[in-house]
Design a protein that fits this description.
By secondary structure, this protein is mostly helical. About 85% of the residues lie in helices and about 0% in strands. It has one domain. It starts with a helix and ends with a helix.
Length: about 70
């Protein structure tokens, strides 16, 4: 029967091998792919920020109007 430290070491080694395999098959995005992901990320930030601002304004203006 394996001791706990050995089992933890085996699990850690397996996880590191998985990470290494993912890094081997990944590649650097080209300019077009990077540009598209930057645009989508920026749009998401603006949308979430706008929604947050609307909620903030409604929560501050609505109690005064009622």
């Amino acid at each position: 029967m394996e001791t706990k430290p050995k089992k933890i070491a085996i699990l850690a080694r397996n996880k590191l091998n998985e990470y290494k395999r993912v890094l081997k098959i990944s590649d650097k995005p080209d300019r077009e792919e990077f540009s598209m992901s930057a645009k989508v990320t920026g749009a998401g930030i603006i949308i979430i920020g706008g929604l947050g601002m609307m909620f903030y304004l409604v929560s501050n203006l609505l109690p005064g109007a009622v």
